[in-house]
Amino acid sequence: METQFSGILTGILAFPFVAAIIILFINKEQKEVIRTIAAFATGASLILAALVFFTYDTEAARTANAGLIDSGSGLLTFQFVDKVTWIKELGVSYQLGVDGLAAPMVLLTGLASFAGVMISWGIEDRVREFMAFFLLLVAGVYGVFLSTDIFLLLFFYELAIFPMYFLIAGWGWVELREYASMKLTLYILIGSVIALVGILVLYFEAGSFFTENPNLLPATSESAYSFDFNHIQIAAQQGAFAEADYLGLGDGVTIARFWFPFIFLGFAVLAGIFPFHNWSPDGHVAAPTAVSMIHAGVLMKLGALTAIRLGVQLLPDGARVHLPWIIFLALVNVVYGAFIAFRQRDFKYVIGFSSVSHMGLVSLGVATMNTTGMTGAGLQMFSHGVMTALFFSCVGMVYDRAHTRDIPSLGGFIKKMPLVAIAFVIGGLVSMGMPGLSGFVAEFPIFIGVWRGIPDAIISLSPTKLTEGGANYYGFIAIAAALGIILTAAYVLRVVGQVFFGEFDEEKFPDITPIRIQDRVAIYMLTVWLIVLGVYPKIMSDMIESAVQPVVGLLTGSK
Amino acid sequence: MPDLMQFNSDDTRGFLAILPEILMTILVLIVIYMDLFLPASRRKSVGYMAGVGMLVIGGLAWLLVPSDGLKVSQQLVLGGMVRSDDLAKIFKVMVALVGGLTCLMGMGDNRLRYKGEFYALIIIATMGASLLSSAADLVMVFISLETLSISLYVLSGFVRRPETPDPAQEAFASRSAESGLKYFLFGAFTSAFLLYGLSLLYGFSGGHTNIYRIGQALATGDQDKAPIILALMMVAVGFGFKISAVPFHFWTPDVYEGAPTPVTSFISVVSKAASFAVLTRFLLAVFPPEQLISVPVDQYKELSQIWVQLLSILAVITMTLGNIVALSQRNIKRLIAYSSIAQAGYTLMGVAAIATTKSGDGAAAVAYYMFMYVFTNTLFFASIILFTNATGSETIADMAGLSRRNPWLAMGITIALLSLAGIPPTAGFVGKFLLFRAAVDSGLTWLAIIGVLNSIIALYYYLVVIKVIYVDRGPDDEKPIDMPAPYGFVMAVSTVAVVLLGTFLISPIVDWATEAGLDLFRL
């Protein structure tokens, strides 16, 4: 295998990793030094991530992918590739790269992690451990977005979950942290290990397929067995997973169709898909502010992106069969999440459930299986990530000063914390989908995508077409999901009205201190992106579209 | 019967094959000599001699023991008593290194520190384990197994009643005596089963003692299948006891709890690793799958499927029961005893996957898993000794606030537990990955799914311990625990090993383990 090395992506990954190790060796009393190192590391990664985002060559990706779609193999091309053989016996290599979907996610991770360190400046208890685990978490998250080798991806995926547990259990909200952190870890890992078995099945099927048909083996692969993403994808396109009567379950059941729900839902657990969303609001609420930001802002996208990569892209045939029913789960997410958010008294739970609802929109976009909807899903991942990070930082700032999150007992905070209030209102408008802000840019294509639907939705394992005669239920789903947007407006306005406006009670909250300079930096940094993306969506939408098109090509392809 | 299997009569190769054992024997003599003749003030050097000596032997084994991918007949040396292949080598290196670490660990235990015979017995047991991993003859299997076992019986009951009355020490002593006796009774009982099974195999094969000859004779001969299966069952009882597979696991929690902690550590790693090595080799040699039968015959008996099924079932029962019972444990040593039962269950999954994969993936997974497991458990027990010395307690609840008392100790335990749970970047992740991979590869996908679900159950109780260490506050939060030199060394070595095996060293060790697996499939 030829070794490629551009080093930028490795740099993104290395800064937080190395900083985490350095921090462990610093005297725990030197808190300011520790914070500065953490800020420097996440800042350096952010700069590199921005570099990747702005220099990503969308045109090149589009041309390369166009050629591949025509030839019937909708492969994604990765840029900024770092590639070194790691475990030759298993066909594992250290392989990083970004495509149009991953590049915005890398930028998002950079923003949220840097803002997270800024927000955590006030933490005093065991700063050393907190920052080391936080940086490890950030490194793991970057790793998942950047890996183009499935073994490496799983490695980072599980690596990211564990510091999460630590941070929530050790520094979270005392009343809930032990329960919430354990629940979160077990939910996510159960999903991922079941998906892991599915991945292993694909690995061996691809391997034995290439052993039988050595002439089909791609030139880039050294052996028939490899965890390289492209390797397995090529096997998928050559029909390695299309053998009928898998496990003697009948003619309609192929490997792709059997394993798709396990792999897709296994990872979608982390994206909070109904009915496996239960860990997420508790986890968000229990986590310390910075961790909530990474958790809701970035970690949930990790689940979504991995589900798209390893589920939809590797098993398009399975996706065609299963996504038409999975879209109902996404619909429940959108409407039910928003409804529950409306009913909450706890400020942070409102945001927690709003994440469930908004991540439902991402799943909805993916389930449309057309370019418009999936591009919307990609934009929504970024938009929601920034928005939620902003929300949680605002909630954290209010809670740190008011020491309560009970919505009815708060009020009038715009008088004391005007910047926070304005940021929260902007975030709220994004979440309602107000034109001119990123939420609109993301949600509108999703709804168009759902409305268009897919011409031949198949809803059971037997190939009966529900839509015959023109009855396309996707239209109904679009209307029902719109209900979720109305509910979103309702809960956002309720929170804004009750927390930030109204009378401020000087006696109840005597010592509302002004926010720190670091908090301001975080707020500005995040808010800018919500507006920029809303005004000029092309900066990201073209890039995402270039990555989504080959996937749609696969889904509508003949095989 | 000359056509069955030839032996290599090259004396140099034979000498090198058992070089580690020869060196260990010399080391035992040196240690006993030093113990007898050194003045009491310089007794400490006995432990260093034993520990460092063993580490050096481990290094020499890695350099000198021959392994070259030859045919079986050329690897069977010393009249067919031992086979010098990569599987033997990887396990010899493993047990020697961990034996050395155990000696160093013993230097921190007040009851063992100045007892020369403790170190001598550890080395003898390691020698037994080392021989066991290369044994290719019924006689050799039994002798080395007993060398290992008998030393361990003594070691478990090693703590003696103190001369001055001290209730705490007396409690320790009586628990230690109980564990030694229990271990001995169970061990003797199952050894009898094993011996009976071996004697049946000797008879059925027409008077062979070399396991490869027996395998060829059984597969091509015209005996009934039923009595052979009976012999297989008996052998399974004997080995099942050593690896603490359910339902032969009853001794495990009591012995783990009662034995002095360095000995517990030793039992849980060296004894288990060597037993897995011999189990792998024995099953594949005596009940071979089709591609391992050298003589072309029209009819042969397919015996491997029987033990694949048997071990699959044993694996499921072992890991599930181990994990579920572990959930309710309050004592850290009992917790890790049940956890080690569960770990044996995962590893059995790899052994079951051996016969059906032609590539040796299963054996490679077992070898890698044991390699990482010995370091992980050593790290864990070294940390536990330190914790027990400081607090006098073995309950999980008393670990509260440990991260504030000594962050390095807390991190050592955490890394060990994460590795046992299979979370990257520790070695356990790769180990589990290889085992599940082997299971899926050999068509045992259902077994892999039960395995991954089990690993989630296990994660729960490991996380509870980690939570106690990092989150809970204890009464002595501000009292630091300091780390004496031998421990610092043991913990540093094993921590680095666990982390490196999960990251940068994956490739060489996996390559080596794959070679070992392939060796088993060369005729």
Report on the architecture of this protein:
The complex is a heterodimer of chains A (559) and B (523). With 559 residues, chain A is mainly alpha-helical. The model of chain A is unreliable at 459-471 (pLDDT under 50). Chain A is globular, with a radius of gyration of 23 Å. Chain A has helices at 8-24, 31-55, 58-70, 102-119, 127-146, 150-171, 177-212, 229-237, 255-268, 279-286, 289-313, 316-343, 347-367, 371-402, 418-432, 438-452, 474-500, 517-535, 538-556, and strands at 4-5, 79-87, 92-98. In chain A, strand 2 (79-87) and strand 3 form a beta hairpin. Chain A has a 3-stranded antiparallel beta sheet with strand order 1-2-3. With 523 residues, chain B is mostly helical. Chain B is 72% helix and 1% strand. Chain B contains 21 helices and 2 strands. Chain B has helices at 11-17, 19-37, 44-64, 72-75, 86-106, 116-132, 138-156, 167-204, 211-220, 225-242, 251-258, 261-286, 304-326, 332-352, 361-391, 402-405, 407-421, 427-441, 445-470, 485-501, 506-520, and strands at residues 76-77, 82-83. In chain B, strand 1 (76-77) and strand 2 (82-83) form a beta hairpin. The longest helix of chain B has 38 residues, at 167-204. The two termini of chain B are 17 Å apart. The model of chain B has no long low-confidence stretch (mean pLDDT 87). At the A-B interface, helix 6 and helix 7 of A face helix 18, helix 19 and helix 21 of B.
Features:
A: 559 residues, three-stranded antiparallel beta sheet, 69% helix, B: 523 residues, mainly alpha
